[in-house]
Amino acid sequence: MRRVVRFSLALLFAAASLAGGASAAAAPPDGVTIEFTPNELTAVRGERITVALSIENGSDMAITQLRVGDVRREDVTVVFDQESDAVGTDASASIPGGGSLVVRTDVTVVAQLPGATTLVAEVTYRLGDIVRHDVATLKITPGTWPTAPAGPLTVSSQGPANLVDTGATDLIFSIRNSSTAEQTIESAIITYPEFLVVGVSDEKTAGEDGRLRLADPIVVAPGGGVTLLVNVRADDGVRPGTALIVLDMSYSQVDSSTTGFASASHALTLSVFGESDVATVFSAALAPAFWIVPGILFVLVVWFLWTRMFPKKSLDITTGSGLAATAGLGIVALFPAFLFPVIYNALFNRQFPDVYGFADVIGLMLFALGAGIAVWLLLILGRQLVRTFRYEAGDSPMSLLWKMRWRTRQLNIPTASVLTEGGSTETVAVLRAAHDHSLVGPLMEVSGDEAALSAAVETRSAHRVYHALKKGRPASWIAFVPEGAAVREVESSKLFEFGTVQTVRTQ
Questions:
Q1: Tens-digit pLDDT profile for residues 390-440
Q2: Helix, strand, or coil here: 328?
């Protein structure tokens, strides 16, 4: 009805303007006037208003090929009368000299306007031999909804403002009837985050996670009230931050068609027990967020076990000292910090760090500790495997021979001379050469089954010598020459007279 009245007023306004010879927009020299009537509106979101796009031909020539272009916006929709000859892709309306055309226009505000907004509609037409492009503007000012009078039922909430995941709390929603008639609460729905557990004392409820509905209607006496005791728990963790517990009610007056709606909410600040204490232990510089803590714990466990337990070797995680070393440790811990939640969630069907609790804090700490121990054991195993095949200082003659058999050189190892502490010259095998230090081993001598050992030594095959010694036990043996010599590291600068000498020889 309001649309019809506004459209009729627009037409009357346009007719009055033509009859009186007055217009809101001054007519151009060619006598053609194009404007919205009215050309200013006040509207709220969701409101639709009908206006008129008036086109007046004050010239003595006919307007042809008249077309009104589309107005495209995301916050306002403008729909011109589709039955008009001036609207559409192939539109081509005509207006005789002295005539006029009115196009009905529906304007709907579909989104909240940031401020006063001006719509521009382009109109194309031919006047005589000239094609013209004119515009009409419509200014829309955002309005406000009128304040509705307070209903007979009002709701208020009270209770604690904080909730820790290991605890529970009770909220009180008080409903008051300020009228002189009974009010029946036909629908009462409590909405809340799905990870919380919510119940209402002494009331039958139904629903699903995140939405709880009271099963039975509640009658509130005139001037009386009702109290709902709502219990909130976080049995399976929380999402740290603020959570809203909202009560929405629809009610009606007894023996009347009057209905109403009331709502109230209560904000709870959610936190995880022990999370802040753990983060404090690792300090804000080391772990600016809790999810990094398991990664840092993992790195520290590996470092401690490697440097203090076994093999008690230095392990430089970061370079530098002070803040630079702290920042470096945090960066090193990022990868396991990202990886651990993925593995933890997959193994235990959790949602860290979206929703978690004290059990997850402990679980992640234990997971990081266990992962650190496991990696340390793997490092030891890997080290032992490497040492099994890698020449090491202190290797026995048999161990050294066993390692030689896995290399392509076999017994064809470069040799050099080195000065001993007593000042004498010793010929050694250069097992591993480096710029500053080299690993060298003394020559070896075998004894036992002379024929078999001699044949194996002649082939210069560590593999054959090793098996000949194993086969000839216990009569066969191998030893370093000279007696008391050992595989050791020496300064590379002390090596001279490089060459190739038989590494293993018979006695």
A1: 999 999 999 999 999 988 878 888 999 998 877 889 999 999 999 899 999
A2: helix
Instruction: Tell whether the model's pLDDT for residue 246 goes beyond 80.
Output: yes
- Phi, psi dihedral angles at 91 (to 5 degrees): -65, 145
Q: Cα–Cα distance between 90 and 133 in angstroms, integer?
A: 16
The per-residue b/e assignment along 476-491, b for 16 or more CB within 10 angstroms, e otherwise, is bebbbbeeebebbebe
- Inter-residue contact 247 to 202 (CB < 8 Å): no
- What is the model's pTM? 0.57
Please give the structure tokens belonging to residue 461. 């095959």
Sign, CA torsion 342/343/344/349? positive
In single-letter form, the type of residue at position 199 comes to G
3-state class (DSSP) for residue 264: strand
Q: Comparing C-alpha atoms, which of 63, 3, 5, 2 is closest to residue 34?
A: 63
- Residue 419: how many CB atoms within 10 A of its CB? 13
**Three-state SS for 412?**
coil
- Chain position carrying tokens 């009462």: 188
Joined together, the tokens standing for residue 58 give 């004050």
Q: Which residue has the tokens 């509130």?
A: 220
Question: What Cα–Cα distance (Å) separates residue 490 from each residue in 119, 192, 210, 421?
Answer: 89, 73, 73, 11
Give 196's Cβ-side CA count (13 Å radius): 30
Q: Which of 144-148, 195-199, 470-474 is predicted most confidently?
A: 195-199
Tokens of 412: 């064809």
Residue with tokens 């603020």: 242
SS3 2: helix
Distance in angstroms (rounded) separating the CA atoms of residues 49 and 3: 6
Q: How far is CA 83 from the centre of its chain?
A: 51
Strand order in the sheet with 130-142: 40-43, 130-142, 117-127, 63-68, 93-95
Residue count of the chain: 507
Find the helix packing angle between 334-348 and 358-389, rounded to 10°. Answer: 110
More confident residue, 3 or 501: 501
In this prediction, residues 58-82 reach a mean pLDDT of 91
Q: Return d(Cα 502, Cα 430) in angstroms, integer.
A: 12
Query: Residues 6 or more apart from 368 whose CB is under 8 A from it?
Result: 293, 294, 295, 297, 298, 301, 336, 340
* Helix 293-304, helix 323-332: angle, nearest 10: 100
What pLDDT was estimated at residue 326?
A: 59
Write out the two tokens for 94. Answer: 């005509």
What pLDDT does residue 149 have?
61
